[in-house]
Specification:
Chain lengths: 496, 386
């Protein structure tokens, strides 16, 4: 993986840069510049790629962000925005001749407006803190990435993050009303607000998922929802991953929209049982977790249909959580799947592609076949309802050649996703990780149009250069999330 | 893996590309048109038309995927019939405003109906597009799957661009299962303070309320509050019962057919057709501000108004030639945005949309410039070119 070569001219300005930044900001502690202090900012959760920036600025207001951006513009220094650094595609990877602007100190909730069902928060507020701020009144913020304890709302907007409930409730883009952004020239603008439609082009949509390339988000206004009054979870056991995939399609085709549908295969079930003993059946090929939520009367009305569908699709065993405790227990295994996998193999490699749901059986079958060809095991634990795969390729980085084999395997999986009508990334973003695979999905004309959008917002390419767009327009397989010896980045977080 | 190639060529598509290239070469602007049912939206220039109604093919429909791909000239009614056959629908409930309404026009105008406040807007259902830009270059953005973060979300950005950024040549839409049934709770003789309070309270309940509107009763200071509930029959009944219990006043219920009818009337603006000397406005705003808006509009000659989207959308009729800039000013001060509907083909509708803040306006211009450098797609449709 290559980044644009660092500019000597910029590197030579380092001291002056640090001096001017310290002058610019009230508190000198807001500028981190000593190598030993910069270690924390060497990489995001895609820790295979590391590099230190010249400085990190801990901004405390949009006005400060704007001042820093203007200074960087004046002396031609590229900027990488930084939320909590939990990104999985290297989007926040620093540039050695640039600075990082961290939004983490901007962590105030500015407005809770229950009448309009909206919360406005500074960019550094964590995803979970928004729900925490309104849950005593019965509300919550729907997108729930499993990193929600740590990741910021600004990072969520920048990545258009999802979660286990996006099948029914959508991803970040479907749940935000407005943002305040500092543009590449330092101007502060508001896009959207509390009204459901806005004037002009939908620039909020472009900002969502822009991975820090179009502007620095300093505030977000999100839509909050009332907690559903009922949530019921089910577990169905199947004798093949393929038939589990078919069950998912059948449920969708029946006219039901569960809030979540997750598949786990044999390898992950066994790993979870060894790790946690949460009561999943052993020796089975696959299981499907389904959750229905909403108005109690509606949930009750759908249970019968759901159970019939699962049986017809070939479920050999069916369990229904009747209490909140049982529901938590059913989900606990799913939530522990990633850490559990870390104990099965020295390393794993996490992919993130989306495919049409109907292609699940075929693609899962092909992945198993590829697993034999590559001589590497693969575990599947994923958001089946939206066709969002997270294959985990197991390997040992100490065994010669295994890492490279794992990487080729991963790239083949993503290309398979594109070939069956899917996409390279469902929720983790392109960053530096899948940047060079973009030409496998997009033509030159497609990429040109996107680069023009980038240039319209940031003509001088100062915001997060080297990310998302391939340096070469060739279809080159890239890397993905590596985990060694079960040492996950952010070990305290639940994983999906 | 080989680079992706696209081979969906057809005579109709080529004809459009040729027209764009010619317009670009000559530097002569055109207006992209479908069924012309939304011609009253935006500023009016009389430009030569680039008609996409010949691009009317179904590209693919896989009910199990909840995804539909069509060309833009396909009639909205044809699509809806097709989906109804599979018990699916376009959940954002797009207004037709005429039989000739096309999918392309719906997306280009970004129009959503009464269910919008519950399920999302038109743009939430556009998963991918193919487009011919102002250089005559055809490209794609987005995809055909529901969860996708690969590249900028151009599909959403094109939704509501009123044909000023490019010619949509293919649209991929997210579908939703059709609710089994519906019913509507009707509260008559409700004054507007109570009505808004009820709408705000109900919208915040964990119920499947998918329509919330307040409509005037001819000439009286009170009106009719409507709350639609959708889902399986027993659930609809149970929820209706809950709403009725806590509500005072003159209450009745509309069963499935009548309920569907009343929401269609609202979606199609049947109650807000301007008379000969009247004009129609639409405001989008934070729901709780709806009354403040209506009170201020009354100071400017408001004849009649109605609240939709639980207060988040206000329809308003005024005497013709009301001072447009004053109404836009009111909208701006409330953080709202307004549309003025043209009164007919002769009405230039110069101030069709509430002006944007200078910074946002500049960004809009830069995006337009990026997609359509010579300004050949209705350059004055949204704002006066400067
Ligand atoms: C254990 C674990 C579990 C995860 N689970 C999920 C999951 O279930 N679903 C999911 O979608 N993701 C998941 N992720 C990925 C990650 O948490 C999300 O992408 C998250 O939104 C990143 O937020 P952050 O604040 O950490 O952003 P960062 O990692 O700091 O930055 C991410 C990108 O956004 C940019 N950025 C950050 N803040 C701003 C800002 N204010 N303005 C402009 N650009 C900005 C950065 O430049 C970078 O490109 C997981 C990650 C981990 C480590």
């Amino acid at each position: 993986m290559q980044l644009p070569p660092p500019s000597q001219k910029r590197l030579q300005q380092r001291e002056e840069l640090v001096r001017r930044l310290r002058e610019l900001l009230g508190d000198p502690d807001q500028v981190i510049h000593r190598p030993e202090d910069l270690v924390v900012y060497e990489c995001d959760a895609l820790s295979a790629y590391r590099q230190q920036p010249m400085a990190v600025i801990l901004a405390s207001s949009a006005e400060e962000v704007s001042r820093v951006v203007r200074l960087c513009g004046e002396i031609d220094i590229p900027i990488v925005p930084w939320g909590a650094g939990t990104g999985l595609s290297g989007g926040a990877l620093p540039l050695s001749d640039g600075v990082v602007i961290s939004l983490a100190r901007m962590n105030r909730i500015l407005d809770i407006d229950l009448e309009n069902r909206a919360v406005t928060a500074e960019a550094g507020v964590t995803n979970l803190a928004i729900t925490r701020a309104v849950e005593d009144r019965g509300f919550y913020y729907a997108p729930d990435p499993s990193s929600q304890l740590a990741c910021t709302i600004g990072g969520n907007v920048a990545e258009n993050s999802g979660g286990v409930h996006c099948l029914k409730y959508g991803t970040t883009t479907n749940n935000i009303l407005g943002v305040q952004v500092v543009l590449a020239d330092g101007e502060v603008v508001d896009l959207g607000g509390k009204s459901m439609d806005q004037g002009g082009y939908d620039l909020l949509a472009l900002m969502t998922g822009s991975e820090g390339l179009l502007g620095i988000i300093t505030e977000a206004t999100v839509r909050i929802l009332r907690k559903p009054e009922s949530a019921r979870a089910f577990m169905a056991v199947f004798d093949s991953v393929e038939s589990t995939g078919r069950a998912v399609s059948d449920i969708i085709a029946s006219g039901m929209v569960p809030s979540g549908m997750e598949i786990m295969d044999r390898l992950s079930i066994e790993a979870v049982e060894d790790f946690l003993g949460c009561g999943y059946p052993r020796g089975v090929e696959a299981l499907l977790l389904v959750e229905l939520d909403g108005v109690a009367a509606e949930v009750e009305a759908r249970i019968g249909t759901l159970e019939t569908l699962l049986r017809q699709a070939g479920a050999t065993e069916l369990r229904r959580a009747d209490t909140e405790e049982e529901r938590a227990r059913l989900w606990s295994g799913r939530k522990a799947a990633f850490p559990a996998m870390g104990r099965v193999a020295p390393d794993y490699y996490c992919m993130d592609g989306t495919i049409p749901r109907g292609r699940l059986p075929e693609v899962l079958h092909l992945i198993q076949a590829m697993s034999k060809d590559f001589g590497l095991q693969v575990a599947n634990v994923f958001h089946a309802g939206d066709g969002n795969l997270h294959p985990l390729i197991l390997y040992d980085s100490n065994a010669p050649g295994e890492l490279e084999r794992a990487e080729s395997f991963g790239a083949e999986i993503l290309q398979l996703c594109v070939r069956v009508g899917g996409v390279l990334s469902g929720e983790h973003g392109i960053g530096v990780e899948k940047r060079d695979l973009m030409p496998c999905m997009f033509t030159d004309a497609d990429l040109d149009s996107q680069e023009r959008v980038k240039a319209a917002f940031d003509p001088r390419q100062l915001l997060n250069p080297g990310k998302v767009f391939p340096l070469l327009r060739r279809c080159i397989p890239g890397g993905s999330m590596h985990v060694h010896a079960g040492e996950l980045p952010f070990p305290g977080l639940e994983r999906f | 893996m080989a680079k992706p190639t696209r081979s969906n060529r057809s005579a109709a598509l080529e004809a459009i590309e040729v027209q764009v290239v010619e317009a670009e070469a000559a530097g002569t602007p055109v207006e992209i048109t479908g069924g012309r049912t939304k011609a009253g939206l935006g500023r009016r220039d009389s430009l030569p038309r680039l008609d996409v109604s010949a691009l009317d093919q179904l590209v693919s429909y896989e009910p199990g995927e909840l995804v539909l791909v069509v060309q833009p000239g396909m009639r909205l009614s044809t699509v809806e019939e097709l989906l109804a056959g599979e018990n699916q629908h376009l959940a954002f409930e797009p207004p037709h405003w005429g039989e000739e309404a096309t999918v392309g026009g719906t997306v280009a105008c970004g129009l959503s109906g009464p269910r919008r406040f519950k399920v999302g807007a038109a743009r939430d259902f556009v998963l991918g597009i193919e487009l011919v830009d102002g250089r005559g270059q055809r490209f794609r953005a987005g995809g055909r799957v529901v969860k996708n973060v690969t590249g900028y979300d151009m599909s959403r950005a094109l939704t509501g661009s009123f044909g000023t950024l490019g010619v949509l040549t293919e649209i991929c839409l997210k579908l939703w299962p059709r609710p089994e049934t519906q019913a509507t709770l009707v509260v008559d003789g409700c004054d507007r303070v109570d009505a808004l309070a009820l709408m705000l309270a109900w919208a915040a309940l964990p119920l499947e309320i998918t329509g919330l509107a307040y409509l005037p009763e001819g000439g009286s200071p009170v009106g009719r509050l409507l709350a639609r509930i959708e889902g399986p029959e027993p659930a609809v009944t149970a929820q209706l019962r809950r709403l009725v219990e806590g509500t005072a006043g003159s209450i009745s219920e509309f069963g499935e057919a009548k309920s569907a009818h009343v929401w269609k009337q609202l979606r199609e603006l049947e109650l807000f057709q301007p008379g000969a000397d009247e004009e129609l406005w639409r405001f989008s705003l934070a729901p709780a501000h709806a009354l403040r808006l209506v009170e201020q509009l009354e100071g400017h000659g408001l004849l009649r108004s109605g609240l939709d989207w639980g207060g988040g959308q206000v329809w308003a009729l005024f005497p013709a030639r009301v001072a447009a800039s004053s109404l836009h000013q009111i909208a701006l001060l409330l953080g709202a945005t307004a549309w003025r509907f043209a009164r007919g083909p002769e009405d230039a509708n110069d101030e069709a949309f509430t002006p944007l803040s200078p910074g946002v306006h500049r960004l809009n211009q830069r995006l337009k410039q990026a997609m359509d450098p010579k300004g050949i797609f209705s350059p004055g449709r949204m704002y006066r070119p400067d």
